Amino acid sequence: MTTEQIQNEIIDEFSVFDDWMDKYEYLIETGNTLAPYNEKNKTPSNLIQGCQSRVWLDAEYKDGKIYFTADSDAIITKGIIALLIRVWSEKTPDDVMNTDLFFIDKIGLRENLSPTRANGLVSMIKNMKAYATAFKAKYES
């Protein structure tokens, strides 16, 4: 599935909810779908700076694709990183670096986040793109 197809799927899933409380509930459920995160990876180097809550992000490059893993100590933030992983995990560095994340605005996520959570979202995206840039430089140059 392409990043565009995955984002359209996310938009469709969120479109069944009219109320943002229901969307938050769905976001929390989405966070619960993340694969268990290895506790030994909860290190300062994997901690995303700029987030109100703690978010750990790690990535592995295998067979030309990036595999992201993450965890958060906040349930809504965990849902947000789960959505980003859904779009970008198992994609190439170019996919990650060049994807327009249109689903964020289409589902109304950005406008329904507190300013500190919105900053955290930007930090998560920057970190994931940084992994893609590093993997591309290391393995595809």
In short:
By secondary structure, the chain is mainly alpha-helical. The chain is built from six helices and two strands, in the order H-H-E-E-H-H-H-H. Helix content is 52%, strand content 11%.
Describe the structure.
This protein has one domain: Sufe protein. Chain: A (Alpha-Beta Complex). The chain has helices at 3-15, 20-31, 75-88, 93-98, 103-106, 115-139, and strands at 55-62, 65-72. The chain has six helices and two strands, in the order H-H-E-E-H-H-H-H. With 141 residues, the protein is mainly alpha-helical. A two-stranded antiparallel ribbon has the order 1-2. Helix 1 (3-15) packs antiparallel against helix 3 (75-88), helix 2 (20-31) crosses helix 3 and helix 3 (75-88) packs parallel to helix 6. The model has no long low-confidence stretch (mean pLDDT 95).
Summarize this structure as a short list of keywords or feature phrases.
mainly alpha; two-stranded antiparallel sheet; 52% helix; Sufe protein. Chain: A
Topology:
Layout: H1 3-15, H2 20-31, E1 55-62, E2 65-72, H3 75-88, H4 93-98, H5 103-106, H6 115-139
Antiparallel strand pairs: 1-2
Helix pairs in contact: 1-3, 2-3, 3-6
CATH architecture: Alpha-Beta Complex
Structural class: mainly alpha
Strand order of the largest sheet: 1-2
Distance between the termini: 26 Å
Q: What is the typical, i.e. mean, pLDDT?
A: 95
Task: Sketch the major β-sheet.
Answer: 2 strands, antiparallel
**E-strand count:** 2
Q: Examine the coordinates and then state which fold CATH places here, giving the name of the CATH topology.
A: Sufe protein. Chain: A
Tell me the overall shape. Answer: globular
Secondary structure tally, helices: 6
Radius of gyration over alpha carbons?
15 Å
Q: Give the amount of beta strand, in percent.
A: 5-15%
Helix content: 40-55%
Low-confidence stretches: none
Assign the CATH class. Answer: Alpha Beta
